[in-house]
User: Fold Inositol monophosphatase family protein from Corynebacterium kroppenstedtii.
Amino acid sequence: MTTRCPSDTTCPRRQSSVIHQASPGARLDRDRSRPRGGDKRLTTAKVVYVSAYVDDATLALRLATGTSEILKGVRSVGLLEGPGLGAAGDDLAQTWIERVLSRHRPDDGFLSEEAADSLERLKKNRVWIVDPLDGTKEFAGGRQDWAIHVALVENGIPTHAAVGLPDAGQVFHTGSAKAVMGPRANKIVVSHNRQPEVAQVIADKLDSEVVRMGSAGAKAMHVLLGDYDAYVHAGGQYEWDSAAPIGVCTDAGLHCSRLDGSPLRYNNEDVYLPDVVICRPELKDTILEAAAEFKKEHGHY
Assistant:
């Protein structure tokens, strides 16, 4: 079976595939494996031969990369807009991810925002937790703060994860991403729609500004990039909102936890996660102490 690689730059792990690119002016034989000259209508061609096995890290990366390309294509042609565009993006991304995983990891569990939940996943040690399109409204509205989340969770912990920021042309993944630890930005980022009350208290403690942004994945990756010092959320989320961002950010060297400091665990029967913090490690104590003081006084975050 052959599949097309999304682009030259977004499919970096090709060790298990054989790729042929024809020179300009060439065309491919019927077996699509050998170029021959004479037809100038075809300028380039690529063939990727899918191997029998793709490792977990590569699979997560390619899922996020491929989904990014699909969604950029859907939006760029301009045939849909608003809620219709958002719904099409959700559906297409979900269908592709589910089909790929059913072929390459048929025995693993699966949890997605866009699919009915099966509690059979609770019997699995390996579960793929995905949000095919995090920030549907932002995607449909032509904004850049939307993301693709793909995470393999093993025994409750994200072990391989990828977060795509399609409009930025970037996919961050475990084993590669490293947090930028330059001078502080003196900014914390919160939900575009639901700023938790505790966020302003934390910002004051850090002498920082509060900035709003859509998509949990976008916010988390901008902390990783050093654009913000922390991402603070207490408006309620689900496991698919944070599994991949937490996997990438933890591996990259950032502090990730609940606002009370307890660890984040995934593949629970109840997939609701009320709060999360991702921050530079040296700010962890200040943030958690401020959150604890606020909750003690107000009873909530």
